[in-house]
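Work package 3, deliverable 3.1, input record:
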Amino acid sequence: MVTPFGYNTSMSCLPASFYLGEVTEVARALLGKRLVRQLDGKRASGVICETEAYRGEEDLACHARSGRSRRNAVMYGSAGKAYIYFTYGMHWCFNVVCGVEGYPAAVLIRAINPMEGLDVISARRAGVKPADWCNGPAKLCKALGIDGALNGISLTEPASPVFIEDDITVGEKSISSSPRVGIQYAPEPWRSIPWRYTISCQAGM
DNA sequence: CGCCCGATGTGCT
DNA sequence: GCACATCGGGCGT
């Protein structure tokens, strides 16, 4: 239900079935959904506006390209769990595991538009312009207090410290795709395959 | 705005 | 050893 204020009051935690499909489709479907972090009983959240899909050991940009390891094991597990990894010596990045169990696939959440808990977010991103609070995969993790302690948790229960809510369904015409970021090391076709998805603001949408 | 580069720890060769 | 699904500061345009 959408109130006269435009606020969706029937938002609910997305179920595991949402994440069972093809990871590229889930990556598109996650645009417009709301990433929620529950911290000390308070909500901090934002609308997902940029995602990337990674799938399979054959995808040479995927963390599973060298097979299963302790680091990437969560990707091989069941859909709807958080795969959170540490990189560049100081940053955490947040993914959602997708697809059938046993096949490594995940959606990297690359950017959100902050909506709730702006006091918490601004405090965690002190000294940074609001526009730069959550416009990167490690930035949003810092803003929401997401780190390796949450790796492997289920995102499909409302009591989870992190979950994703149904919010907006973004039309196909409002989605732009482009090559994934930061994987120049990968050979073709993986370097160029357009598995990065963003919400584009087109007239008439 | 853009480009360049250092930070800093883990995982894989 | 070295590369890395990044970020932020510094400096030039």
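Residues 1-9 of chain A have pLDDT under 50 and may be disordered.
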